[in-house]
Amino acid sequence: MFMGSSGKWVVSDPARQIIEDLDPGLHQFFSINVQFPDGSSPPGEWFAMNITTVRKTMIDAESAIKHLPPAKLPKKLPDGTITTYWSTGTSLIDFNAKRVTVGPDADDGANLWREKGHQRELILFSDKLHDALQEAGLTTAKKFRARVSSEP
Known about the structure:
The chain is an alpha+beta fold. It has helices at 13-22, 127-135, and strands at residues 2-3, 9-12, 28-32, 46-50, 54-55, 65-68, 81-86, 89-94, 101-102, 112-115, 123-125, 147-148. It has a four-stranded antiparallel β-sheet with strand order 1-2-4-3.
């Protein structure tokens, strides 16, 4: 699982099958050809994935997130930081801080989702999906475990 140059998530067929098993019919998959800069291709089938589930599970106040108006954005973002644009400003999410907190119900419902109010690059997935991908020997984009808040 990785993000392609067009901003779409790309998954191998084994990853697609695991996601479909856990979230049947929730996401869209489109067969694509993956090619490395040298012209070679990885083995197997690959799919662009449209993650159709959007949920609000992250507790921003307990996460490494700063909300800034556009005029206050730093000229150069630290490595590991992504920006999310809102109608009233911008959010900076510092992934190097490894501090994202979700509510206790984050593992209820869909196993893969985009976080409401943030760019499509920010995806979250359940422990169940993480464990299934790991058990199958599949790798994902840069990740870390979120802290679960005891407060709803």
